[in-house]
Amino acid sequence: MERNLEKALSLTEIHKIIEFISHTLKKPVILEDAQFYLLSYSSYYINDFDHANQQTILSKQCPVPILEKFIANGIINQLKTNTKPFRVPKIEEIGLNHRVVVSTRYKNESMGYLWVQEIDQPLSDEEVDFIYQVSLHIGKILYKKNQARREKDEKRIQFFHRLLKEPSQNDKQLRQGAETLNVRIPPLLKMIVFKLNRHDEEHFDYLKETVQSYSNATTDSMTELLVESNKIIIVLGESSRKNKIDERSLELATNICKSFEQHHSLKVFAGIGTNYEQLSLHWKSYMEALEVIKAAGLMGAQDHVPYEYLKLGVYRYIQVLAEHNKEIKYRNPDLEILRQKDRENQTELLKTLEVYLMNNCKSKPTAEQLFIHPNTLNYRLKQIFEFTNIDFNDFNLNCQLFIDLLLIKSESSL
Fold first, then answer.
1. pLDDT tens by residue, 65-86
2. 101 within 8 A of 110, measured Cβ to Cβ
């Protein structure tokens, strides 16, 4: 194996190294970059690749379902922290056979991941050490290749950061600047912003990895990942069809928040800005996304606060109204009565009222959402009528009631 190692370390082309590893170990081999994009794979044992590897080769990157499974099983975290090769057991539901994986590192930085699928016999300790030694060689080669690309990427990122701020340049100047950097700007752009409910650096890094994984999987759209203070931004671009970028942005926001909260038990707020044809107006899309996050933060959760700014509705005004009510010391007397009754009797009259109003005063969906019998709902509504002067026939008052209920919730979340 020592002679094989010398041979491998003498090679300087990534594809030749991968082929040599595969021939030496008689195993299928795949190399991915740090964002799980396919860099190279061995052709000699291509018929032995499992379904997971076949999917990666076909799509030129690790598919989202496989990444999600890796996140759930802690494999991604191991890749980030382990410096030595480790074994990944068989995962039948994603078509993954046993394999050994190692991070290709240089200067304590991961350049990518080297996967060797174990077929027939498992790799010996000597073979695993061979993989480790070669991975360091690959890491150094990838580092050098990435240097020039990093300088180019840095200029690209600076360009997109400028779009987040009200520009001093007009559209023509901005597009000329993009052309100089070879940055392709699709006709449709939209800003998606993510922020942790409670910020800490460790979980912020995990959130960044989650956002990166999902944005990388969006192969037929332009995605640019930016970090601004304690926020993570996706600049999403589409070449045509406004409804497609709307659907894609909502899908990204929903999946990222759901995945992160499931695996880390932390709330993530997300906001989606509007499409603007003019590049010089995309700072507004960013500000709109931040408005959504502010509203969700004020409510303490995003359960009913929509991700999209254009669908924010009354939540757009919650902060202004909260400040106004605080200034004049206003509290809705009817809601104060119900809040006191809930405290005294351990009831849920306020919650019942909120859900009833959200369902346009329709009993059946309200009872279903509250998981109570219609008779129980009727009894609660009867109590509300007895204790207060609320009249559900007055649309104006219903609107005010709903807003005042939201303001009570915002107070309790502070």
1. 898 899 889 999 899 889 999 9
2. no
CB environment 124-145: b (16+ within 10 A), e (fewer): eeebbebbeebbebbbebbbee
Least Cα distance to 196 among 231, 153, 147, 226 occurs for 231
Q: Report the chain's terminal Cα–Cα distance, integer Å.
A: 63
Q: The pTM is what? A: 0.65
The answer to whether 331 and 294 are in contact (CB under 8 A) is no
Question: CB-based burial of residue 320 (10 Å sphere; 0-12 exposed, 13-18 middle, 19+ buried)?
Answer: exposed
Mean pLDDT, residues 316-342 taken together: 91
Q: In what order do the strands lie in the sheet with 188-196?
A: 222-228, 231-238, 188-196, 268-272
Nearest to 275 by CA among 252, 254, 249: 249
What is the pLDDT, as a whole number, of residue 202?
86
> What domains can be seen in the chain, in order of their start residue?
2-148 (3.30.450.40), 164-319 (3.30.70.270), 331-413 (1.10.10.2840)
How many Cα atoms sit within 13 Å of 49 on the Cβ side?
Answer: 19
Q: Which helix (H) or strand (E) holds 46?
A: none
